[in-house]
């Protein structure tokens, strides 16, 4: 009798994940997540926001296990960055929590779709912000992720390129903000960040970091029509302060990284009029409250 009971329980537990959640149940999950996300952002103090974050993660991981959640839009989660590449090979859920002393904590989960009616695979990116030395030349994985808020995934340009270019925001400190251009690659259930395909003045790096004064605004966006990542050219506010990136501001010109033969090639002082075609999508994200003004 005990053996029969164990077999039935095993069958039930495996069958649960083969079932589709109804739209009504998914909507109920979304309503709960939306309420918690609002508290994560607007809670009166850090303890309240962190408690809401804990509840949000619990609910999110529960619903994301189910196959039917993979295509569910979760449109009401306005303060959560939810991204998916053109090939739909994964989904990225990414958000921030602010502490009372101004620190920003980053949360991110990658979801891989279920195979053969099993539950979806969920990979947590573990924030480890001690990455200051040689940041542009390091390789990271899900266990030592640098922490950022992603706002754009650029899909591979060729079928045999299974890595993705990603754009991110980092509220680095009170004095400076960073935008990051990086490469993400998923191998099985392992996630890697960084690839030596960024070329500037014949020097290669694994990623690009654009750091600037927190009181100004800098655009880093992808222009689909020209296949270029276009960004403001930065200069120091005053002479003799080269290298102090927290004092860098835009000078009205634009640079870019152009994709060519599997690499991103740096080009300086491009036609500024192209920049206007890239800003609309990122402004939409800013309106959703994902980024600090």
Description:
The protein is 22% helix and 35% strand. The chain is α+β, with helices and mostly antiparallel strands. It folds into 2 domains: 1-125, no CATH class; 130-293, no CATH class. Strands 5, 6, 7, 8, 9 and 12 form a 6-stranded antiparallel beta sheet that branches. Helix 2 (23-42) packs antiparallel against helix 3 (46-64). The longest helix is centred in the N-terminal third of the chain and has 20 residues, at 23-42. Mean pLDDT is 87; it is low at 1-18 and 275-288.
Helix-strand string: HHHEEEEEEEEEEEEEEEEH
How many helices does DSSP assign? Answer: 4
Main beta sheet: 6 strands, antiparallel
Shape, please?
globular
Radius of gyration: 21 Å
Short description:
With 293 residues, the protein is an alpha+beta fold. Helices cover 22% and strands 35% of the residues.
Layout of SSEs?
Blueprint: H1 2-16, H2 23-42, H3 46-64, E1 81-83, E2 91-98, E3 104-112, E4 121-125, E5 140-141, E6 149-154, E7 163-170, E8 176-187, E9 190-193, E10 198-200, E11 203-205, E12 208-213, E13 220-223, E14 228-236, E15 248-260, E16 263-270, H4 279-287
Parallel strand pairs: 10-16
Antiparallel strand pairs: 1-2, 2-3, 3-4, 5-9, 6-7, 7-8, 8-9, 8-12, 10-11, 13-14, 14-15, 15-16
Helix pairs in contact: 2-3
